[in-house]
Amino acid sequence: MHRTGFTTVTARAPSLEEAHEIVGRLTQAGFARNSIQVDRSGDTEFQVLLHVRQANRARAEQAISNSSGLNFDVGVLPTTILMIVGGAAALGAGLWALRSTDVLSSSQRLLQGEPKRRSR
User: Does the model's pTM come out above 0.70?
Assistant: First the structure.
């Protein structure tokens, strides 16, 4: 049974590892894993088949060819950004805590009548 508006996008891969990399790029692009099929084609080649709506064909082909021009793993990028932001937030909180402790101890000394320490 052939459904209208759907098509099959095919990609050849020289190894099973490369086929799985293509599958990974397709799933990162938002395509459902159950719509992707990997078949053996000959002794050493594999074929990746994606059943997709005609409107999403160009997006699928771009994901397969990885023609975005980026030389890094896009899946790692959000994790890296979160780690950097989290580290900066922790550093900022630590510095704020040190600053706040110093300010409180200074104001407590003033309330108790102790002279204010001079900065060096």
Answer: no
